[in-house]
Amino acid sequence: MRFHHLSYAILLSRASAVTLNDVCSPSYVRAHLPAPGFYQGLSLDPSSITANPVTQASVLDNAFYPDATFDYCNVSFTYSHDGLADEVALTYWLPAPNKFQNRFLATGGGGYAINSGNQSLPGGIIYGAVAGLTDAGFGAAQTNTLTQWLAANGTLDWHRIYMFGYQGIREMSELGKEFTKSFFNMTQSNTTLYTYWQGCSEGGREGWSQVQRYGDSFDGAIIGAPAFRWSFQQTQLLYPDVVEQTMGYYPSPCELQKIVNETIIHCDPLDGKVDGVVGRTDLCYTEFVEANNFSAIAGLPYSCPATPAIMGAPPTPAQQGNVTKQAVAVVKKILDGLHDSQGRRVYFAPTPGAQMTEAQTGYNATSKQWGLSVISLGGSFVEVEINLLNGSNIPDLNGVTYDTLKDWITEGMQRFQGVLETNWPDLTPYKNTGGKVLMFHGESDWGIPTASSVRYWESVRKIMNPGKSYNDSAAAQNEFFKLFLVPGATHCAANPAQPDGPFPQTNLAVMIDWVENGKAPQTLNATVLQGKNKGQNQQICAWPLRPVWRANATSPDCRFEQKSVDYWNYELDAFNVPIY
Ligand SMILES: *[C@@H]1O[C@H](CO)[C@@H](O)[C@H](O)[C@H]1NC(C)=O
Ligand SMILES: *[C@@H]1O[C@H](CO)[C@@H](O)[C@H](O)[C@H]1NC(C)=O
Ligand SMILES: *[C@@H]1O[C@H](CO)[C@@H](O)[C@H](O)[C@H]1NC(C)=O
Ligand SMILES: *[C@@H]1O[C@H](CO)[C@@H](O)[C@H](O)[C@H]1NC(C)=O
Ligand SMILES: *[C@@H]1O[C@H](CO)[C@@H](O)[C@H](O)[C@H]1NC(C)=O
Ligand SMILES: *[C@@H]1O[C@H](CO)[C@@H](O)[C@H](O)[C@H]1NC(C)=O
Ligand SMILES: *[C@@H]1O[C@H](CO)[C@@H](O)[C@H](O)[C@H]1NC(C)=O
Ligand SMILES: *[C@@H]1O[C@H](CO)[C@@H](O)[C@H](O)[C@H]1NC(C)=O
Ligand SMILES: *[C@@H]1O[C@H](CO)[C@@H](O)[C@H](O)[C@H]1NC(C)=O
Ligand SMILES: *[C@@H]1O[C@H](CO)[C@@H](O)[C@H](O)[C@H]1NC(C)=O
Ligand SMILES: *[C@@H]1O[C@H](CO)[C@@H](O)[C@H](O)[C@H]1NC(C)=O
Ligand SMILES: *[C@@H]1O[C@H](CO)[C@@H](O)[C@H](O)[C@H]1NC(C)=O
Ligand SMILES: [Ca+2]
Q1: N or C, which end of the chain has less CB nearby within 10 Å?
Q2: Where does the secretion signal sit in this chain (predicted)?
Q3: Are residues 222 and 279 in the same domain?
């Protein structure tokens, strides 16, 4: 026994004596690439390999991992698809051998980017994981892949769209897992490589694109505010502009901001704690926006200083006045969400208290008036993916009604169902292989309505648990898929307008504990990342439980409230097909 332990210790010390410099070279990488034929239809290009050690890299103040300093091996190589003259570039960061903890983390992008440059990879290295990203064949222009979705005006380039939709991430993940095992000599059949996903927004959609299709995709997926239900998500960005145009009133940014500020002030206490954080946007809607209180914002004075031109944006003049009744009516209509001309609900709106970024107007220096400014994030969807024109926005919204928005949603849903829509509700293969999902969504997200994630969680619950009661099905779902609404948080980030809100910065640590140690999170670990309480810990409630603060508590109680669950379960009765 003793002798066995001794030799095992020698083996261990010998193994950990391997340094980054020993293995971080093009020749070592070449000798450990996945074998030809490992992934059908792909050919790796060994001549493209680069590998260099990077020491003492530091990262600061990131939403998804704590500050850290670390060493890594920076590896890249390319592959092509057999029969196509394309080139896909992969990047993997590998921890030093003595820091490697048998983990692989796949990462993605945001907006129309398929990766986040070097922003997401440290999140893996810090936890002893190899971390990977892909350019999915889009090259350096991957930061806006949309400029490559058409082969010509009128012709979609479906290969590129599939690469963006899910194929690129799948290939990067499968090649990355194999490469990791080979690089670290994980040849014994009893050594497990734990595999993870972490991404937010488009990165959240990319995570779901894998979990929904591949039971073997990851052991744990961390998915924030996913940009899924694609055609709905992209089109709803235009709804506030159409409201302004339809109602004929264009509030200035300052007037909008005043309405948001008042909403935060009045709704803050509804969660039981006056901390500047709207922890209960459901109550905010029913007890403030829908109630008469909201109209009392009209008449309140607002004032904002002029701003200089910054980064291509034109200067804005000083704005002051009293909030008008029309401005209040416009915002109330926006918060009601998109309905068709027959009054049936098409989609949800961002929560009250969220910044009204989508509703921003533009200043006309000639007429000295605020007017329509079409948000390009939504307009580019219509221009490129619906109208098949290689532009970056639609020129205007002339003739566009609420029904037009519904039609764009339907057309997009049919066109992209199998590649981008990403709301397949049956996760049985993933659940059966033991996969876990931790989904979170800022409850003050301006861009992707928080209700979008709630709807998907509820759709999966219903589809996977036929015949079970709400409580039984929710409990079954929570065994592998948990949803956390983050009080006050904006889109994939802590919210400067609600600085005392928590943000779940340590999600990967929480997921590792769930996957590797069987410790399921009952609440989600989070930290105040800014302001006077920076560093303070707060726990976030798991859906369907909702936060209620008691005096002097450090975290809210998590309670089941039927009214709240009912509030979040919107009926999209404008459609007679299921919308998951
Ligand atoms: C990420 O890239 C930026 C810009 O190229 C660079 O300044 C920074 O050091 C990089 N971070 C790491 C951790 O390598
Ligand atoms: C990592 O490798 C890529 C590709 O060779 C290179 O462009 C980049 O500068 C490297 N990064 C660092 C920090 O060495
Ligand atoms: C689309 O426009 C981009 C520039 O925004 C350009 O790089 C690209 O070549 C164009 N594609 C086509 C098919 O015209
Ligand atoms: C893997 O094994 C080879 C051969 O024993 C050795 O040279 C190499 O350093 C090992 N790699 C690591 C990361 O331990
Ligand atoms: C794997 O098996 C080897 C030999 O069969 C044994 O020495 C080692 O401890 C095992 N490792 C784990 C993690 O169980
Ligand atoms: C809104 O509140 C912020 C503080 O969160 C403040 O800086 C800003 O001036 C306010 N804007 C208006 C229009 O009242
Ligand atoms: C709404 O107005 C009523 C009557 O003024 C007041 O009692 C209540 O506290 C207000 N609620 C909110 C959320 O502001
Ligand atoms: C704004 O409202 C205040 C009272 O709150 C009033 O004194 C002032 O005249 C109003 N200003 C304008 C421009 O209507
Ligand atoms: C700005 O206002 C002027 C004068 O009313 C008008 O002629 C012009 O079309 C406007 N510009 C835009 C971009 O709407
Ligand atoms: C394609 O459409 C864009 C956007 O409308 C336009 O700017 C461009 O000129 C068109 N290209 C061709 C070749 O017609
Ligand atoms: C929870 O967050 C705190 C900071 O708020 C951090 O110190 C702690 O390590 C985190 N716990 C886990 C399991 O990551
Ligand atoms: C909360 O703390 C304050 C100040 O520390 C104290 O006065 C108050 O009694 C406490 N309330 C409860 C319910 O413990
Ligand atoms: Ca509060």
Answers
A1: N
A2: 1-17
A3: no
